[in-house]
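Priority: low. Protein: Transcriptional regulator. Input follows.
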Amino acid sequence: MSTTTSPFGEAELTDPWVALEPGADPAEHARMLRRAHETFTEAGTVPRPVRPVVADSWRRSARAGVGPDGTADVELMDGDLGAYRAEHPLARVMPLFRELLGTFAADGEHLLAVCDAHGRLLWVEGHPSTRRRAGRMNFVPGARWAETSVGTNAPGTAVAVDRPVQVFAAEHFIRRVQPWTCAAAPVHDPRSGRVLGAVDITGGNGLAHPHSLGFVQAVARAAESHLALLVPEQPVLGTPELTALGRDEAQLRVEGRRIRLSRRHSEILVLLARHPEGLSGDELLCALYEDESVPPVTLRAELARLRRLLGPSLLASRPYRLTVPVESDVAVVERRLETGAVIAAAAAYAGPLLPGSQAPAVVRLRRRITDGLRTALIARRDPDLLADWAHAAWGEDDLDVWRALATVRPTAAVRARLASLEAELAAPPAWPRSAVR
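Result:
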């Protein structure tokens, strides 16, 4: 692995996902990182050679209002924690995690930790004395270790960027976590591809070795393979499934294939799945394009490409329609909301519908689903559901949800975030200098 020299005199890694090059001096590298961290917390700039993945995470942490002297909040305890863990999909692979990582953690005085997709720790196991030390910083089951809560850390950052990641020493955003080093990898649902959570190994500086990152990634892949065996593939002739929440490019599962769709094709399929009776060419033009001057031939070309991708048996014309019913995650959330199953609706909601789409009909549908769910969450006043929404990327600036959360879980971190949002709302707009006369 090649390196370059930083202004601090350190060898700079060219692999951004590896925390420490083999042979590097951990103590010296940790001192460099502490200086860089102080520079960022004081001046807001990130000196080189802080890795890009860490620099980006520090910036996200600061934007979320995380302070370097903060701590994690314990959100689930006792019976609530036990019930949540029992229902979580990763409970089915905990025996595998313990078999592959448990002995390594115990023998090496490390910790095995597993979090959910929101960075909430579900299990923390390992060496007893290490667990006691970790408990002093609330690295315990039920605590939220998402980036938006405690800043840069391996499990929280792994689910935030959907990549295996190491975090070494003062790369951690919160100072009390900086004596630790950790490596984590996200675990995905083998059918939908959604992040279920992450598996993490936490301990001393020895975990900064590249092998620990590869090890935890291999464990995550083994867990996904095991989950695939526990959840058999659908029959070839099963109902096609469209996944479009929380992603700019939808995925269609049909006849054993997984098809990743372009943004325009995603928009078309979302609308056709919602209108099994079909849509005329003019109706699709109005639904997809804000510009009324777009010629029909543009849409016909998109539909021709989509038909070649899907096969002629799935997409018919006059009107444009799908020849078989298509199940979508959008419909699942809507059905659950209609029946009052708010917890189930929140579990199925992976994020805003095609968030980058500007198609008028998609924008309206996205707002309807999002507003319907957040209204139901606010009315239900469940602190865990509200916290999940508030700490998600789409909810971090949702003032109404943060206000609702502050009434049922008025922790210091929640009150601080709410105060920050209210201050931003009350602040006068920043006028461009050129506009001031």
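The chain has three domains: 52-230, 241-328, 330-426. The two ends are 56 Å apart (CA to CA).
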